[in-house]
Amino acid sequence: MKTYIHTLFYKIATITMLATAAFFSVTSARAVNFPGNGSTGFGGNIGNGTLSVTDDGTNIYGTMTCGNGGSMGGNALVIYIDTGVGGGFSTTTNFNDQSDVNHIVISGVDTGGSGRSVMTFTNGFAPQYAMSLVPFSPANFGGIWQLANGGNGSFTYKTSVSLSPVNGSTGPYTFSFPATTIGLTNNTQASIRIFGTYISTTAYRSTEAIAGNDYGQFGQGPYTFLQTAYATYNFAAPPTPSTPAAFQVDMTAQIASGAFNPGNGDTVYAAGTFQTNPWTGFQLTPSASNTNIYTGTYLDYNPTNTAEQFKFNFYSVANTTNIYEGIDNRPFTLQSGGVTNTLVYFDDVFPTNNSATTNALTFSIDMTAQIDLGNFNPSTMQIEALGTFENPKWTAGFILTNNPNAANTNIYSGTILDGNYPGSFENYKFVIVSGGNNTYESGNNRDFFTPTNTGTFPLAYFDGVVSAYSIPVTFQVDMTIPLAAGTFTPSNGDTVSVAGTFQSPNQWTAGICVLTNNPAATNSNVFSGTFIDQNQPGTGEQYKFQINPAGNANDANWESIANRAFLLASSAQILPVVTWNNQDINDVLLQATTVTFTVNMTNAVDIYGFPFDPSADAVVVNGNFMNPQWPDFWTDALLGGFDYTANLLQNNGNNLLYTGTFTVAAGSSLEVQYKYGIIHQYTGSSNTNADNEASFNLNHTRYIRTVGTYNFPVDIFGIQQTNLAAATEPAFGNLAIGSPSAGNLPISWLGLPGVHLQYTTNLLSTNWVDLNATTGSSSTNWPTSNGNAYFRLIQP
């Protein structure tokens, strides 16, 4: 849950603005704005940014306005371009041009091929060109290349795009290039398709995209991304009709305070999504009737009914800085015929003694749920409303009160005078005051448009928790397996949360209901949390857990199982502990383990009839123990299509026994399925498919029975083709008792982590006694002096 303090309510849009207005110097077409996909995998620089593209019939111009401070953040933006003429590419799999940083990010492969993030293009998008923007060292360059499969030098350099600024400077970043560079004809209409991906200079790809969208596991894998959407830009399109949008702001309070000094050359701007280059600002001028009011009209080329956002700012000559409004973005909807936005005070700060209007606002809130939850004690606490309707803004002291004679004494209300202009877009929240501690509502600010004269707002509920039903439900999940696998790392900021139908008002919202663990608990890997379910008792609820990398709900990794379910009780409810993805901890490797594979190649013949030649051929192994599982190196291994050296087994001079040792990662299944294969190196075989030990899906199956190190028994090449049972181990079992020796009875079995022995002296009894010392082992000695006993194996 977020904890808000007073100053955090002053939300500021991501705006990069100069002291003077900046526009494209083009004439034939308006700029088209392409938003990011909203992902914040690399901080939101591209995912929360805007790409603006325009042209003059001869040259194409662009501006990349980044989110989160306006910087590219040391990473590159690659924009793939499909001109629609055919001959494009469906994947970057075979791009291997590592000539320099620009080539690396287009290829998506690190220097030396040590890491790769493949982008697969879908929905008919097949680019022929790519533009790489790297505004920092060692590149400080942006350019366009024609795509081609192959190694260094395979991409054809077309032109520089005059990227500016560079040397690590903060954007917006501008670029331009002749349309003929990508095969377009000057002043001839054409539609091109574009898609931008945000990637590091070591080919570590994020989930952030612009002018489209993608899907994949961000990182440097090899991982495969799917481009799921693209954007279309119409080159040399006829000018789009524009709609005038008028803005007006009253600077009286800023002048009175001395913050704004027009006599010293200070200037006022409006900036927002309505601009050709969003959030770059355009200058307003004093009104003739009231020089404290600044006005201006801008031609908005967006379609009518577009939902726009904006803010005002002013440039202070004395401080050489821009001063922005500290409120939420102001909204308006573009209407046919034009829009005149309401006159407002800058930053919603109205003159205390000389405001233009006085409007009475009445707030009310029902605190029943908070009282039931123990969050609000009417005897010792107060409820206040804070916001931009006050002067100063967000000032404590507007206390709401209840009516002790009312039917519902838990409703608190109050009326306050607001000096803002009617129609102003204002923000507020409720806060519980307890001594010196303030508890603000979580989530976004509430908002309203200032009414004329008087206004009574609808009854509210603190944090949106209504009073009808407030049932605490405790969720619990054992994160042992993802902790061991490294897919959940709380020390790096990862969090685990729960989402589902129990959430109100926004169901299935990840990252809100965050779970915590107790480091002092017997099992500190259990994460839990109690949240309020406002649904009626008896409701069938569904839910799932999510891992949020570095607490980022936008990149939530949801459980891959079907939705979990429970029936809502009529009182506080504690759900049982479950494991992540319902994985059995006893079936998973909780520690990385080195496993040795051994195969006997005596008289080995592959399924195509080609015998194994130990003097020339190689032996490989493949399976679910690899990372990624079953890597695709089988086909065309002889022709060099895939690198199989990591899967190679060695003979070591031991007859025809071939061995190899591999590290199986923590979090992997104890059950290992695998296959051997022969890499034929002589010309007598025309077959190049190394998946040649047995037919499809006929694998060896064994279990890792001890952690740390483990040696599999010797396999026989191709045995599963004729005797699958001989190639398949049971998970555990084969319980056997040997002959007594030295007063002990030897007992042996196939063990497994978590499996242990039990005994009883009477088969009709249900009292089986655990021999916990045998957990994870495969043998023990039973003293004969203990008398008769019956034994069994159990996996909890």
If you had to describe this structure to a student in words, what would you say it looks like?
This protein is mostly beta strands. Helices cover 4% and strands 38% of the residues. Strands 4, 5, 6, 7, 8, 10, 11, 12 and 13 form a nine-stranded mixed beta sheet that branches. A hairpin with a 6-residue loop joins strand 6 and strand 7 (141-146). The chain is flat, with a radius of gyration of 34 Å.
Label the overall shape. Answer: flat
**Rg calculated over all Cα atoms:** 34 Å
Q: What is the SS-derived class?
A: mainly beta
The main pleated sheet reads as: 9 strands, mixed
- Whole-Å distance between the termini? 36 Å
Give the total of beta strands: 53
Helix content: under 10%
pLDDT < 50 runs, ≥5 residues: 1-28, 636-641
> Approximately what portion of the residues adopt beta-strand conformation?
35-45%
Individual helix count: 5
Mean pLDDT: 88
Q: Could you write a compact summary of the structure shown?
A:
With 796 residues, this protein is mostly beta strands. Helices cover 4% and strands 38% of the residues.
